[in-house]
Specification:
The protein has about 350 residues and is α/β, with parallel strands linked by helices. The chain is built from 16 helices and eleven strands. It is globular and about 70 Å long.
């Protein structure tokens, strides 16, 4: 019996390892489905592979094989031979759907990410990001020179930010503040949600001109444009001064420690007495274990390595960054609605800059 158990265990472990070895394949399948807009074409009902091939200008036989793979992943259902319908899981790839992940799938499965992840051996050996090694520039410089990829990136970030914004507003009381500056605030999705939930608050969206170009439209759509200014600038040089709250969502994880401290120190210099600095970031476990949540955290941390050259950090690592910038960690507030993300609150350190 013990030999049978050992044999079953070995077979199970082999199956698990094989699924990891083949793991890149489903990601690429989901990516091409998102890129072709298959969920949008199926949103109004089941269609044949031939009809979808005509609509997407693809080879019918090859698309049929892709659709069978999507059916095996649960994204579509083969309701009759060669005829496919969208599932609830696959509907998350529809454009504009609440919680849509289409642009995220396009971004992570796109050529730039594909090449950078292929450069992982170099990144591990040298510590250099795949972006710098392969393209000679950082992620944001690259996007500035490739507008179409920037559109996909910005839409993916906006999709994520919408969900995270709801979690931030639900978990934290912003009514104590007079003015909040969203540093690296992009199109203003986060600060718009905060202002909508806090009628007495005023805001600023601060980013590079290419980053916050869409902010006026977003703020107007949210009905908060009269309470929010849009200011262009570079957070490595300075940030707007005098506010009593500064928030940075998914900014610090893009950068190495030296540049992260520069950003945080500029916020520390700008903040009004008694003010707060808030980060919305993933907090890495102090010790890793084999679990779905830790796996997701580890994969995203490696993505920071191969793409922008940043990193996800533990609570202790954030505390060290704060100390170097004249701040001190006050508390970490988990955001249950944004799995794995926390709001990290810091205050100016006594006797700091």
């Amino acid at each position: 019996m013990s030999e049978l158990v050992a044999s079953d265990t070995a077979a199970s472990q082999r199956t698990t390892l094989l699924s990891l070895i083949y793991g890149f394949m489903p990601a690429r399948i989901v990516h091409i489905a998102a890129e072709l807009g298959l969920a949008d074409w199926l949103a109004d009902g089941a269609k044949t592979a031939a009809a979808l091939a005509e609509a997407t200008q693809t080879d019918a036989g090859s698309l049929h094989r892709l659709l069978r793979a999507l059916a095996s992943l649960g994204l579509v259902d083969e309701v009759a031979p060669g005829r496919f319908a969208l599932t609830a899981l696959g509907a998350q790839l529809c454009s504009g759907a609440p919680g849509s992940l289409r642009h995220l799938a396009m971004m992570f499965g796109g050529e730039r990410a594909w090449q950078c992840w292929g450069d992982l051996p170099h990144c591990v050996r040298t510590g250099q990001s795949g972006m710098q090694h392969l393209f000679g520039v950082g992620s944001f410089e690259y996007l500035a020179a490739h507008p179409q990829e920037a559109v996909t990136f910005n839409k993916a970030m906006a999709d994520i930010t919408r969900q995270t914004s709801r979690a931030v507003v639900a978990a934290y009381d912003f009514s104590r503040f007079r003015t909040i500056v969203d540093v690296g605030g992009g199109n203003g999705t986060l600060v718009a949600a905060i202002l909508a939930g806090t009628p007495t608050l005023r805001g600023v969206v601060f980013d590079l001109p290419s980053g916050n170009a869409e902010a006026p439209r977003q703020l107007a759509a949210a009905g908060v444009a009269e309470r929010c200014r849009v200011i262009a600038g570079d957070f490595f040089h300075s940030v707007p001064s005098g506010a009593d709250a500064y928030i940075l969502k998914s900014v610090i994880h893009d950068w190495d420690d030296e540049r992260s401290v520069t950003i945080l120190r500029n916020c520390r210099t700008a903040i009004a007495p008694g003010g707060k600095l808030l980060l919305v970031e993933r907090v890495m476990p102090e010790r890793m274990a084999a679990s779905p949540s830790h796996l997701r955290a580890a994969m995203l941390d490696l993505n920071m390595l191969v793409m922008p050259g940043g990193r996800e950090r533990t609570a202790a690592e954030y505390a060290a960054l704060f100390a170097a910038a004249g701040l001190e960690l006050a508390r970490i507030v988990p955001l249950p609605e944004a799995v794995g993300i926390s709001l990290i609150e810091a205050s100016p350190a006594a006797g700091g800059e």
